[in-house]
Amino acid sequence: EKGGHEYFMLKEIEEQPEALANTLRGHFRDGRIVLDEQRLSDQDLRDVDKVFVVACGSAYHSGLVAKYAIEHWTRLPVEVELASEFRYRDPVLDRDTLVVAVSQSGETADTLEAVRHARAQKARVLAVCNTNGAQIPRESDAVLYTHAGPEIGVASTKAFLAQIAANYLVGLALAQARGTKYPDEVAREFHELEAMPDAVARVLEKVEDVRALARSLADSKAVLFLGRHVGYPVALEGALKLKELAYMHAEGFAAGELKHGPIALIEPGLPVVVVMPSPRGRAVLHSKLVSNISEIQARGARTIVIAEEGDETVRPFADHLIEVPAVPTLLQPLISTVPLQVLAAEIAKSRGYDVDKPRNLAKSVTVE
Ligand code: M6R
């Protein structure tokens, strides 16, 4: 049941530390990353020369996040593609291509068809799935389960965070097999991941502040989301949550694109959520984003800034500041997404909508 929560989604948001811990558990043994049901040998992983992530919706966003980590750790090219587009073009696939099919339900028709297409072209397919024995893992060469537990809310929350963690495990397993990271580096990355449930728990302590902010945004017509690097897919995910729950016009942009068009949308009172990188980890991007925020604030936007605790440089430009704990850059999406989930759910609630069952949407989309 909802465990005393007003809606399932809030319960599922609060279960995220556990979802992450359960997804990581058991995957580091005797100093090595170990995946689940693997019909891919170490040699298969060594032979991989290209990775595709195929998925829909939030699962697709988890792939966009993972691209930054997998390319960095493995030096393999990673393409992330909407499953519904993948098989209708002519993707270059062969037996050395690893296709990672990410799906909470494991039943999404577009993703399933992408898996079939990839296998017909002899690519190896690894499913990242939250549902035991679902169709997508059944038709894949290997499966890595996210152990987020059943997700009832139509909007994906804990499964999304677990997908990022699982995709990162795939990246680390590839880096380990290929030798692009030393064993101690792989171990360090894993242990940093293991610290994330506590970091997410700290973000959750601020839920009430974010809910109050959300209530003040309920009458807005539109909300824009800006991010860079791993913050960019977080911006896309924040916008998707708001569209599906609050039926508001919401768009995520790469902040570097602002001057190439989106800045024309800025008008007085428009809420703009900015996902900041750490001032330590990505100093150059950080300062570029600070100037973006000052530009949009000068044009009257209402700025809502998610930034690392103690990041004083953003304070003058933030109409609302949501502080999150300092974590390594590649892990930031696991914490910066959380306030955006709460924001969307609470705006939807304030507008009188059913947070768990938004209109026109199904939990799993089993038709193309
Ligand atoms: O079950 P799947 O992970 O394959 O579902 C994919 C999308 O339909 C899903 O993430 C959808 O976008 C969510 N409603 C987003 O919150």
Characterise this structure:
This protein is α/β, with parallel strands linked by helices and 368 residues long. It is built from 14 helices and 13 strands. The chain has helices spanning 8-14, 16-24, 42-47, 57-74, 83-86, 109-120, 135-138, 158-178, 183-194, 196-204, 207-215, 231-246, 283-298, 332-350, and strands at 28-29, 32-33, 37-38, 50-55, 78-82, 97-103, 124-129, 142-145, 222-227, 249-254, 271-275, 302-308, 320-324. The strands form three sheets. A six-stranded mixed beta sheet has the order 3-8-7-6-4-5, with helices on both faces. Helix 7 (135-138) links the parallel strand 7 and strand 8. The radius of gyration is 20 Å and the shape is globular. The model has no long low-confidence stretch (mean pLDDT 95).
Distance between the ends? 31 Å
Sum up the overall morphology in one term.
Answer: globular
Q: What hetero molecules are in the model? A: 5-amino-5-deoxy-1-O-phosphono-D-mannitol
> Helix content range of the residues, please?
40-55%
Task: List unreliable stretches of 5+ residues.
Answer: none
Major pleated sheet: 6 strands, mixed
